[in-house]
């Protein structure tokens, strides 16, 4: 597979452009501008012309640093992810390590949830992506898991984190558009369910309504912790060779 020029630049395998149409322009500035545009207007607005306008340069000036929009988006996703959390400390078990790994990834992605709409074109090859992979594998060092199972475990956690962040971002966008609070949205949902369903046809839903589940305190952090714990419970069965309690 041919490595894109921007990937080689990110890894320090190729010299960065020297003199350009604007002396203050750099790859870092271009990526930062892309992040600003994406945060303000969403992924559809992240175009080479829009980024050039943000930086006050011509569109052609950007192509001295990135060969295509696709390469730029690879750099953006790597910047969003950022460096991984510190490697496991002595005495930290695999479960604590993966809990910290998944939580740190969630925090990074929550800063720019719009970036999750960038199409995935292949395995992560950028510096931060590879560093995160190494950090996750280090958490599983010393377990009985085979190498391919370790990789599958990290993909499972990664998928859960990405889905959770994307779902919450979509829900927040909907709340912002409707101008209601979380509590108002949930109570309205409960009232709609009560009106539209009957206990005979939907007994389980009515058990939730009677238990006032939608009125209970809690939030995304609690739901994330619940999901992570269940995933780690399942992985523990592989690590220990015993079924979950």
From TrEMBL:
Keywords recorded for this protein, A-Z: DNA-binding, Transcription, Transcription regulation
DNA-binding region: 47-66
Annotated InterPro entries: Homeodomain-like_sf, HTH-type_TetR-like_transc_reg, HTH_TetR, Repressor_TetR_C, Tet_transcr_reg_TetR-rel_C_sf
Top-level taxon of the source organism: Bacteria
UniProt name for this protein: TetR/AcrR family transcriptional regulator
Organism: Streptosporangium vulgare
Limits of the HTH tetR-type domain: 24-84
PANTHER family, alphabetized: HTH-TYPE TRANSCRIPTIONAL REGULATOR RUTR, TRANSCRIPTIONAL REGULATORY PROTEIN
